[in-house]
Structure formats: C-alpha cells, structure tokens
C-alpha cells in the first residue's frame, strides 16, 4: 500500500493541479476519440470532475482550459478539505470529507470494477470447500475484476498464481500493511498456488527522499515482516526490483513490452504525472505491471506465458492494473484478475488511511503493548457521545468509530463482533470499553508477530528472495 500523508493534491501547487486537470482532460478526449469502453470513459470523466473540484478548492477559481491560475488564494494543508464532495483516490492519495470513509460503492462505478457480492462469496465457498475469510464476509475485500475467470480456471484444474507487493518506504510496517498479506496467505493456502511478492524499492527511491541503498535496506527489512506472516517458502518468491531486474531473463523484456505500448499521455491521464516529473516515475508503472505476466518468472513457470495472475491489493493500486489490463491483450498476454480491499483507516478517522510517516496515525508492528494502549486510548477516533449520560441515552455510532472499524479487520469471532456492535449502538457499551477490547485484540496479535519476526534469519530472507523453482511443476 502506498504511503499517504494528508492530501497530496492539496499540497500540489496550483500550477501542478492545473497541469493535472489539463492532462486528465486530454485523456478523456483521447478515450472518447478512441475505442475505449464506456466504463473507462466514465472513470476518466469522474476523475476529471474530482480534480476540478480540488483545483477550485485550492485556487478559489473554476478551471478554465488554457488559462493557468492567477492570483490564487492558497488553502491550508492541515488536514482534509471539507468542501470537497468527491472522494479522491489514487496510488498516493486517499481523501474524503466523509467520516464513514470513502464511498466504496461509488468507487466501484468510477473505477469500473465489480462488487464482490454474496453470489461470488458463495461460489468461492462452493469451489474451495472452505469458509470464506472474514475479509470477504465483512466486505473488507469488496471489489474485483474477473474473479469468476479464476474460479472457472480452478474448477477446470487450470493453474493460476498470486501476485502482491509492497513499497518499502520505511523500516516498520503498520497493521494496515498486513491486510493484503494476510489475505494473500489465505488465498495461497485455499487454492494451493504460487505467490510472487514485489518489493518496489525502485519506486520508493524515485518518489521519496531516500538513497538507493536505504530503499533496498528497507526492502530486506520489510521482507522479514512479510515472511513473518507465515508464507510457505516452497510456494513463495519475494523479490526486490533493484535486485531481480538484473537477474531475470524474462522480467525486463516484459517491462519493455509494456513501455512500448503505453504513451506518456496515457500515464498522465491515469496517474496525474506532469511534464516536470522525472522519467523514472513516468516509466515506473511498467515495473509494477510486469509481475502480472507469468513469463516474468521463467524459473517458476518455465516458458509458460499464459498462466493467469490474481492480484489481491488495496483499491488505490488499481490504476496500475487498469493500465496493465489495457496493455495485456496487445502484447499477447492474459489480463490479470484482481481482488480489491478497502483502506485501513487512520486512527484519527476514516477520512484518510494509515500512513507510515505519521507515527500517531498508525499502529506499527514494532509497537510495544504500552504504545498500542496509549495510541488507541489517545488517538482512536470515537463514535461515542461526549458524556456517559448522553452515550447511555443515544448510543455510539459504529460507522465512524475507528476502534470498531479496526475490530472488523482483526476480531475473527463474528458473534462477539455483532454483540459489541449492538451494545455500542444501544449505549450499553462505552467507548473506553470498546477500546479495551481492541487493545486486547491487537496486543497479542502484534506480540506474536514480533516473536515470529525474531526467528527470521538473513539466510531465510535470502532463500525467499532467490529466483528458483517453487513446489509446482509447469
Ligand atoms: N506500489 C505498491 C506500494 O507502494 C507496491 C506494489 C507493487 C504492490 N506491486 C504490487 C501492491 C502489487 C499490491 C499489488 O505499496
């Protein structure tokens, strides 16, 4: 998951915002002029509208093509802009003015993906014979692309593989980072398939104020946390882009194929790049696309170019894979399927997601039991009432309560969760009591992770990161 501070587009200069709106406008025009699907056009138009709103908020002026901003009134960058009525989601920014968080149903429409509905969850259960993970049952993984194709393949005994990743921007992961790894592990166990995990140290070098050495070091440190989630070494390949690109006979070829089939205009439209972004950023999306193709891993898949890929990731990564799915058929490959998760909300509220760069917005995997307790008690946004009397009378609001939201991620017991929801909503359960349940859920979970991480040796990291055949014959 990308690290996100407050509002990236709010911190952009008015001129940069102007350029983003202009680029998005060009993209909409080129989509309408080309053979783009209505979904794609719709998604691009929605993004254009939301960028225009951001522009207006920042400058106080309506966007006018060809007229860069003049004499604008800058807005403060302290926290979310509340005048915005559109959620903003891209790989770097997640922002909404709604305390309940991003409107995910709208996002499905805007991104043109499909909802993970009861029918699909039932099918997963039927096909695998396993109870669907609580992330599926509770709508934490809420959207998908082509998951039915994966299930068809599985039913027909056709192989597929999993791909997920992490941008190593800091040494410590927070609990939000665990979501896609916990889910990837479950998928790997249920379907018994290979998993590749990309560590985009190159991306973090390009985007952050980091040296190459530091970014690589973080990749290795993060690999330990990922391994500590319990992945099977015989079925999992973890790689750093900085390392693997030079070692693989397949990966770079695919990067170049993607690069040849995506124009600057397209990435401008998808990612909001401007003329002043370095060319490393502009070509990076091809690096994140390449692992979606089995021929990027000849040591695992031999010469097979048609093993389908399934990517569990947070929805903010979807722009990369929309681009990937668009190029895939043009370079003779299958489109990767996707499973999208909602964001893990910041302690301060669901208006934005957790960020590694703000220690108080997150609970880290390195936090002590005491830090966990203090952070939750002090910072977790409460949907409770101001006084005990009022709370008892009117009850709390689970929809905006961050402690309750976190419990939906980490408390596996459905009955207990439902009882707490009822008790909190009725006012029988107080905020302090709800927080206590969360603290007591997270403390042992994080302590256990720390225990497992301690056992991970450099040698194990090296094994996971060595290109090799896995326990599958292709
Ligand atoms: N760009 C992602 C991040 O910043 C890392 C990533 C690379 C990734 N490949 C991925 C995430 C595939 C999910 C799926 O965190």
Quick synopsis:
The chain contains 22 helices and eleven strands. With 474 residues, the protein is an alpha/beta fold.
Features:
Tyrosyl-Transfer RNA Synthetase, Rossmann fold, binds tryptophan, Helix Hairpins, 3 domains, aminoacyl-trna synthetase, 474 residues, Tryptophan--tRNA ligase, cytoplasmic, EC 6.1.1.2, alpha/beta, ATP binding, 10% strand
How would you explain this protein's 3D organization?
- This protein is α/β, with parallel strands linked by helices and 474 residues long.
- The chain folds into three domains: 14-59, S15/NS1, RNA-binding (Helix Hairpins, Orthogonal Bundle), CATH 1.10.287.10; 89-347, HUPs (Rossmann fold), CATH 3.40.50; 369-455, Tyrosyl-Transfer RNA Synthetase.
- 50% of the residues lie in helices and 10% in strands.
- It is built from 22 helices and eleven strands.
- It has helices at 8-11, 14-33, 38-59, 104-111, 118-128, 134-137, 147-155, 175-191, 201-207, 212-227, 241-244, 251-260, 264-271, 279-289, 298-301, 318-327, 369-379, 388-394, 402-410, 414-426, 431-454, 458-464, and strands at 88-89, 94-95, 114-115, 141-145, 160-166, 195-199, 236-240, 308-314, 337-341, 345-346, 349-353.
- The strands form three sheets. It has a seven-stranded mixed beta sheet with strand order 3-4-9-8-5-6-7, with helices on both faces. Strands 1-2 form a two-stranded antiparallel ribbon.
- The radius of gyration is 22 Å and the shape is globular.
- Residues 1-11 and 72-84 have low confidence and may be disordered.
- The structure holds tryptophan.
